[in-house]
Design a protein that fits this description.
Blueprint: E1 17-18, H1 62-72, E2 76-77, E3 86-90, E4 96-101, E5 106-109, E6 112-115, E7 117-122, E8 128-132, E9 136-139, E10 148-152, E11 155-160, E12 169-171, E13 174-181, E14 184-190, E15 195-201, H2 204-207, H3 210-213, E16 215-222, E17 224-229, E18 233-238, E19 244-248, E20 252-254, H4 259-264, E21 279-281, E22 283-287, E23 290-294, H5 297-301, E24 309-312, E25 314-317, E26 322-327, E27 335-336, E28 343-348, E29 363-371, E30 380-388, E31 390-393, E32 401-405, E33 424-429, E34 445-448, H6 450-459, E35 463-470, E36 480-483, E37 487-493, E38 500-505, E39 508-509, E40 520-521, E41 526-531, E42 541-550, E43 558-563, E44 567-568, E45 571-576, E46 592-600, E47 612-616, E48 625-627, E49 649-651, E50 657-662, E51 668-675, E52 684-685, E53 694-698, E54 705-714, E55 719-730, E56 737-739, E57 749-750, E58 759-761, E59 766-771, E60 774-783, E61 791-796, E62 805-813, E63 820-826, E64 831-838, E65 843-849, E66 858-866, E67 874-881, E68 886-891, E69 894-900, E70 910-913, E71 916-918, E72 921-923, E73 927-936, H7 942-948, ...
Length: 1208
């Protein structure tokens, strides 16, 4: 770009010290946020600075908005899904309503949404412009100012009038410059996205002026080139990408037409041509810095012209939303975006008795394409409407117009001859009341569009095209005019999950299939089911509807339906069939009774559960009592088969509890039992005396609802009822000790995160070394010395090794020639356990001696994975289950191997990190790194181990791009400093350097017409030619997991790859997140990850087919890439939602150099003499962040906020 267009920067070095900012409550019109409520922070897993103080943040996620809506009784916006054209509200009943607008209805100003307001106002510098528009526009206040300046993503187009302009007269959205030539006014109209400038030629003398025969404007662009395309369309193309940024439909001219007809049609002639007007096309020429319009000479000289004449070019940016008109009288002409008119006709043109006033126009139809972003298989569309403003009807009588779902999309090439098929009629309306104008909120005609919205949701359509036409296209009486302000409003819900854990007491777990002896019950049972709605929080109420059917002997089918009262989400619902008021206590015996259940949240119901059955036989023996002090404490005082269930969530996942079964019958000889299933013949307990109780230990291994079942069997083999008890199990307790080993270099000991058990370091321990997540995830380095290279606790017996326990740690083995122990606990002469490495098989090793002091053997489990010099950091976890006599090793979060263990002695010694005990002393010194050691006195769940295997998250750098400075030692470049949390000092080695003309735009916040930054006070502008930014600081690492994030706005459609972020190796880029063109004018966001640093390497590619790149979105789109080094998982998030993911083919270590991040380009080939870079980004970038570790979904949602958040 030309350096003269750069934003100048302050002479001194500055950086942004921003406190944590809460999202602003910019809610629209009547939408109310219930302020004062408390909402849980969706990202409490990541806290790198002080949280927002004062008011709670407005609802950002769907779950937060639903909670606020229920509390307030009013719709609440889901801010994470809001744009200038789209808004989603959570409704008090738990449903959501999403609105897609063809044109912007609101704009972001100072972090708040405000309604679009195109009223012209004056700025202090004298210029005029719309009060609140999506596109940045500025018009002359008179004098030598440019007539019009429009900008998007750092691309600026200016038009100038050849002479000084008079001060404009402002009225609504218009600025009129009187007598710019004799008897010629110049009128500018502004919309939310564009403007028109119309020359009003009032007299024949004015029409004869040479300045009218060829109208010349000065034309200037920044990062733009201008061309005239087919059909005399002026386009302004991005110099970098070649895509169209601004475009004008073919300019046209018309006369005043029949004044009576114009009045009847409510047409303002400076905005659009009356049907009766004489019209002609205007020639367009671009010659250097001059735009020439050549009006039709014949129309200028026509003696029958009805003055004024109107000469109307229009300028507008491109957009994903679109609309068009087609005219059967001009079958091969296109009227894209109504040719700049705000409204257009449907129906047959009115040909009056005085003659043909329609020229060739005949039947007109209107087409609209709107986003339908419902690519979510969990939603159910309950209703949808298509709203639009009608500005005119022929005579006010009720005449039908119909809405259709079209068979294909539309483009600027759509005309009558190639219009898409009118596939499915949605609705018919006969409106009679007109509005006087088109605004973003005055839609007065509503069509039902539920069918089309449901199709869009089922088929994952990103956009859907609608059409409006008159039912009677043979009569002028059906004439109507509709605006370009269509809105598609879709109400949807995510229904509750299908009920689970279906049980009957007596009866046990759900019985299906062919009835057998297990179906019989001795009494009318209580039916139970667990209901949940994954999309709402635990406080949201649900109801259960039970349906029970049976056919009495010789009778007809009977049905009983009962709906429960409301209970909290994630609750067990009971239906007591024996209840005299609500149940069926007199069910017949010896017939099959079937039952099922549905869940409802008030607006949507789940799928019906599986159908269960039982058979009543009152001669069957009653069931047994079930007790458990750990999980069924509320039933302790009850000795009957009935179970008193509290419904509370009990801490205990991964912990064993005792369950006792006892029958009132004296002849019981055995009990069959089951957990989360019916009693099994393989699960049999025998009492010490007939009729006596039995007990069994069991540990729930999921945080979920569970149930236990039991059958008592007498000496004759006759079985009792199946008794059942339901209980809910919450997550298990935290670790008993945890050493992250992130202590400062030179520390004498490692801090226990639980506070009570520090580990003293030997003299050979080196703290502060890069860990599994690089420097941001520190570790200790041990030299392999038994006497100096270790850490040990003074406290003893942290783990009772005679009971279940879990050990976890990150380890890196640097020497593979001898045995090594990373973690152990001392016994007397042997360790209670040890976790390390064995050179015998070259694998990870865990062992437990069979006894203390004089052990005969060690029970061991080794990994299936072989350890090599290239293995690097590995997460190990071993779960020891002394009850089942098993131990399972997990490697990088995945189960690797299971082996037997039959040792139940308890060691009571110290914890040793880096060695283990032997009779001769401590041995097996660890040579390598250790980090994040955790000890648990329970079985750790697989999901928890997976979480432990994720490296800790830490922000490496955040470039807010709110400022850029010229360093004293290099005046040829700009530098953007790291943005830090209040009180911290930026690290100058993390500066982002801007090259080749890249610059940071920081507009005056008080200028109402300036282009606004994506977030905060500024953003970086790249020209797509050779501009880019880069950091020389290694931020990602060669072995660890990482995440990168940025907000991006394309200047135009990407005809070729445009890279947002990348990391170069020596020969190719390790990863690239970019916009790609997949053909047919279609764009996608894409992430590629190279398997190796080689030009011909394989790559993992993930593509987002849902969130299409949208240059028209003034807020840009937020992109996040996460890379899990140990599972090889890569994920791409767009605007806070997971867009695509895959498992990569790369190895555990990046074999290229750990170079800094490239912003706005990527290394394509590093093998050439001069490395080849490409994919230069054309547009603006903002809010660039790099993390070590993997961002979680909740934090990604917060990062997608359009409010600056320096604490993330």
């Amino acid at each position: 770009m030309n350096s003269s267009t750069k934003q100048t920067a302050p002479s001194r070095r500055v950086w942004a010290r921003l406190g944590a900012l809460s999202a602003a409550a910019g809610l629209v019109a009547a939408t109310v946020w219930a302020g004062g409520g408390t909402f849980r922070d969706p990202s409490d897993t990541l806290a790198m600075g002080p949280g927002a103080a004062g008011q709670p943040a407005p609802p950002w996620t769907e779950a937060q908005a639903v909670g606020a809506a229920r509390k307030s009784g009013k719709p609440v916006e889901v801010r994470a899904k809001g744009t200038s054209r789209q808004v989603t509200h959570a409704n008090p009943d738990g449903s959501f309503t999403h609105e897609s607008h063809a044109a912007p209805f609101r704009v972001m100003q100072r972090g708040e949404w405000v309604p679009v307001d195109t009223t012209m106002i004056r700025h202090s510098d004298g210029s005029v412009g719309p009060k609140a528009a999506e596109t940045a526009m500025r018009f002359s206040g008179g004098g030598d100012m440019p007539l019009a300046t429009i900008s998007r993503a750092g691309r600026v187009m200016s038009l100038t009038w050849p002479t000084a302009l008079p001060q404009p007269v402002l009225s609504g959205d218009s600025a009129t410059y009187p007598n710019v030539l004799p008897d010629v006014d110049l009128v500018v109209h502004a919309s939310a996205t564009s403007y028109t400038h119309v020359l009003v030629v009032k007299t024949p003398q004015a029409a004869a002026l040479p300045q009218i025969k060829t109208v010349s404007y000065g034309l200037k662009g920044t990062n733009l080139t201008f061309a005239v395309e087919s059909g005399d369309r002026l386009v302004a193309k991005d110099t970098g990408s070649g895509g169209v940024v601004f475009a004008s439909p073919a300019p046209k001219m018309w006369d005043a037409g029949d004044p009576v007809e114009a009045t009847l049609a409510d047409v303002e002639p400076t905005r659009s041509s009356p049907e009766s007007a004489r019209r002609a096309e205007i020639g367009v020429q671009v010659d250097g810095a001059t735009l020439r319009l050549v009006p039709d000479a014949a129309l200028l000289a026509d003696k029958d012209v009805r003055f004024p004449l109107y000469i109307d070019p229009m300028t507008a940016p491109t957009s994903n939303s679109s609309w068009a008109m087609v005219d059967s009288g001009y079958p091969n002409e296109e009227y894209w975006r109504f040719d700049g008119d705000r409204d257009q006709r449907i129906g047959l043109c009115n040909r009056t008795d005085s003659g043909n006033t329609c020229n060739s126009s005949q039947i007109k139809r209107l087409l609209y394409t709107l986003p339908t972003p419902y690519q979510d298989n969990t939603i159910v569309v309950s209703s949808a409407t298509f709203r639009v403003t009608m500005t005119h009807t022929y005579d006010g009588s009720a005449r039908n117009a119909s809405l259709y779902r079209m068979g294909a999309g539309i483009s600027s090439a759509t005309n009558w001859s190639n219009q898409p098929a009118w596939s499915k009629k949605q609705d018919t309306q006969d409106p009679t009341v007109s509005q006087g104008s088109c605004t973003s909120t005055n839609q007065n005609v509503t069509f039902t569009a539920t069918g089309a919205a449901q199709e869009a949701a089922v088929n994952n359509w990103s956009t859907t095209t609608f059409g409006i036409r008159a039912d009677d296209e043979g009569s002028k009486l059906s004439i109507k005019r509709f605006c370009d302000n269509a809105v598609l409003s879709v109400t949807y819900n995510r229904p509750p999950a299908t009920p689970t854990n279906l049980t009957a007491n007596p009866g046990g777990a759900c019985k299906t299939g062919t009835p057998d002896n297990t179906w019989f019950v001795s009494s009318v049972p209580k039916l139970s089911a667990y209901l949940s709605d994954p999309e709402t929080d635990a406080a949201e109420p649900l109801t259960a509807t039970f349906t029970v059917t049976w056919t009495p002997s010789g009778g007809s089918l009977q049905t009983k339906t009962w709906t429960s009262g409301q209970k909290a989400n994630k609750s067990t619902f009971d239906y007591n069939l024996a209840d005299a008021a609500t149940g069926v206590p007199n069910l017949p015996e010896n017939v099959v009774v079937s039952w099922s259940v549905k869940a409802s949240d008030g607006t949507a119901s789940s799928a019906s559960s599986v159908t269960c059955g039982f058979i009543l036989d009152k001669t069957k023996p009653a069931g047994s009592d079930i007790d458990s002090p750990q999980f069924l404490a509320s039933d302790a005082g009850d000795s009957t088969p009935s179970c008193v269930e509290s419904g509370e969530w009990i801490d205990g996942a991964g912990r064993y509890g005792t369950f006792t079964f006892d029958s009132a019958a004296a002849d019981v000889v055995s009990y069959k039992y089951g957990f989360d299933t019916n009693p099994s013949p393989t699960n049999v307990l025998t009492p010490t005396a007939n009729g006596g109780p039995v007990s069994v230990a069991w540990a729930p291994m999921t945080e979920a609802p569970h149930f236990v079942t039991v059958i008592a069997v007498d000496a004759a083999g006759k079985e009792s009822d199946t008794s059942v008890c339901n209980f809910n199990v919450a997550a298990g307790g935290q670790s008993v000790a945890q050493w992250n080993l992130a202590d400062a270099p030179g520390s004498p000991q490692a801090v226990d995160e639980r506070g009570a058990n520090p580990a003293t370091a030997g003299s050979g321990v080196t703290f502060g070394q890069p860990g599994p997540g690089g420097a941001a995830h520190p570790s200790v380095q041990l030299p392999g010395s038994n006497s100096t290279g270790y850490l040990a606790t003074s406290s003893q017996g942290l783990l009772d090794t005679s009971r279940p326990f879990t050990v976890a740690a990150w380890v890196k083995a640097d020497a593979l020639t001898g045995y090594m122990s990373a973690v152990s606990q001392d016994g007397t002469g042997v360790p209670g356990f040890y976790l390390g490495y064995t050179p015998t098989s070259g694998k990870w090793l865990f062992g437990i001696p069979d006894m203390d002091v004089n052990a005969f053997r060690d029970w061991q489990v080794t990994s299936t994975e072989v350890v090599t010099a290239q293995t690097g950091w590995t997460h190990l976890a071993v779960v020891v289950d002394n009850v089942k006599d098993t131990m399972t090793m997990y490697v990088n979060g995945k189960a690797s191997a299971t082996a037997a263990v039959r040792s139940e002695w308890a060691s009571h010694g110290n914890i040793q990190l880096g060695r283990r005990l032997a009779k001769t002393g401590h041995v097996w010194g660890w040579n390598g790194g250790i980090s994040d050691v955790a000890l648990f006195d329970r079985l750790v769940l697989p999901a928890e181990i997976d979480a432990l295997a994720k490296p800790r998250l830490q922000r490496q750098v955040y470039w807010s791009l709110d400022s850029a400075d010229v360093p004293d030692d290099n005046p040829g470049v700009f530098v953007s400093a790291e943005t830090v949390v209040d009180g911290a000092t930026p690290d100058e080695t993390k500066d982002l350097t801007l090259y080749n003309g890249a610059w940071v735009m920081t507009p005056d916040p008080d200028d109402p017409f300036a282009e606004r930054p994506l977030v905060g006070a500024g953003h970086m502008v790249l020209d797509g030619g050779d501009d880019y930014a880069a950091s020389s600081k290694a931020l990602v690492g060669q072995t660890g997991s990482f995440s990168v994030a940025a907000r991006a706005r394309l200047a135009a459609a990407c005809g070729a790859d445009q890279v947002v972020l990348s990391q170069p190796g020596a020969k190719t880029s390790r990863f690239q997140v970019k916009c790609v063109n997949i053909g047919g004018g279609q764009m996608r966001w894409q992430l590629t990850v190279a398997a190796a640093d080689a030009t011909a390497t394989s790559t993992t590619v993930v593509v987002d087919d849902t969130h299409l790149p949208d240059p028209s979105n003034p807020l840009g789109q937020h992109l996040v890439v996460t890379y899990h080094a140990f599972t090889k998982d890569v994920q791409l998030y767009v605007d806070g939602e997971l867009a695509a993911s895959a498992q990569g083919s790369h190895g555990p270590v990046w074999d290229g150099p750990d170079n800094g991040v490239q912003v706005g380009r990527a290394l394509l080939d590093g093998t050439t003499t001069t490395p080849t870079y490409g994919g230069y980004f054309s547009g603006v970038l903002d809010e660039v962040r790099v993390y070590s570790g993997v961002l979680d979904a909740a934090t990604v949602i917060r990062l997608a906020s359009t409010t600056a958040q320096s604490d993330l």
